[in-house]
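Why do we care about 3D structure at all? Because function follows from shape, and shape follows, mostly, from sequence. That is the central idea of this module. The next example makes it concrete: a single protein chain, its amino acid sequence, and then its structure expressed as tokens.
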Amino acid sequence: MSEEIKNTPENQEAPDQGRRDALKALATVPVLGALAYGAYRKRKEAVTGRNISDVFTLSNRQATYLEPLAGGEKIRVGIIGFGIRGKQLLRAAGFAEPSWIDTRIADAKANKNDNRYQEYLEQDDLNIEITGVCDIFDVYGDAAVVAGSNIYREGSNGKFGTPPKRYRHYKELLAASDIDAVIIAAPDHWHGQMAMDAARAGKHVYVEKPLSWTVPETYMIRDVIKETGVVMQLGHQGRQTDCYQKAEEIMNNGLLGNVNLIEVCTNRNTPNGAWVYDIIEGSNPTTIDWKQFEGPEERVKEYTDYMMKYNLERYVGPEERSQFSLERFFRWRCWWDYSTGLSGDLLTHEYDAVNQMMHVGIPHSATSSGGVYFFKDGRTVPDVLQTTFEFPDRDMTMLYSATQASSRSRGKVFMGTEASMEVSNILEITVDRNSKRYADKIAQGVITTDDPFFTYVPGQSSTDTVTSPTELYFAKRGLLYTYVNGKRYDTTHLHIREWLECIRQKKTPSCNIDQAFEEAMTAHMGTRAYLEGRTMYWDRDKEEIVRGEIAL
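And the structure:
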């Protein structure tokens, strides 16, 4: 039974502690501090003594996570791809490059409030061994070997364990008898193929999003994963976010009324955010296996035929694709030849969060627009994109909007007939001024409609409807963490931990192949709609994308 949220004496004391914290934290910015604390105090006084349990009820339960079994067997893991995301995944699994440790130690010494090094040391031991690494760039491959042997989580002057074997081709790694499971962090155009090859080799699979590069590939991956029975987790670590689980409870309780419009967004305004990554020193034709990066000729032809089938030949990369290019190797996300663009790279995170909270499935239709409006660097994928997804069976529309040339902050907003909810690493609910459910409370002045009346911050000891400015300030700036029993965790670490425990406990991960299939098809609908300039429809019975008329 859900516990009621009441203004208990315990909850009345929490804001007073927040007052002391707020005054301390805001002392260095007196004008802003006074204004912020004044607004906070006004909100506190407005809701003192209120009772909303008859119209707004939530449990106080913590987010649920799959706990590790004591004494579970050690799992031998291989990793394919040690670029930006590959490094992050291996750190989340407990194996960091010594140079990264050196930097974190220096940061902690320079700033006593920088706890990243300590949090990394306290990260759970996942009881795994890195027995194989593979990267087609020698600099990355060598770095992966060192990271995989850093079993004591030490810096450059520390001691190391037995180094994992480095493989120069991923199929050689998959053939190894001392590897039970594999983490795949290769470019998009390799995700599906590598996942299928790993499953056929009997290896459990953690593969970064998106699931697939093309529509036909998506069906094939699902079939192979189900036929082989391996445990597969897609890399949407947001599945572990406490706020997302609380949002799902809010949806299930109908506290927003009928949700008819959702806005999800991605805003960035840096070259790195637009995939213009650094060219790494030591990269050249002798240290990079370009042919393996491109893939076999028959696979390249298969992709070209796929694009031309939909009259998309103008979007296929130039004929010099086969020629060595450092820009394409490090900035592959900028070209359709290797990438899934904004839909596959960033929209998938937003969609998966919505699917987790509301279980929407594959949309009925998708319509897209946008273009290359800022980064005139030869890329073929857009840097501005809008996609509208329709869910007529839910009486709902989801809007995705993205730009890689503006950093304006925009969260996930769920608009309902009774209230709206904005979700990031915190959660805020604002009641609609025309709400019927909350009308009496609005008339009584118990609920105001000009600012959030409910704020949930993961890591608090209780769910309090008024949160101190100090807590809000730090919570809103946390991007990649959540809390479990009051302890802060890297969500990627929790996602990998869940995958490993599902292997041990013979369970199904939260972002399994069925969830992954829905993610992939939704992203492909958005991409196809953009490329072809027409609305795409999902035939639920036939499980296929159907082309609409070309927009004029």
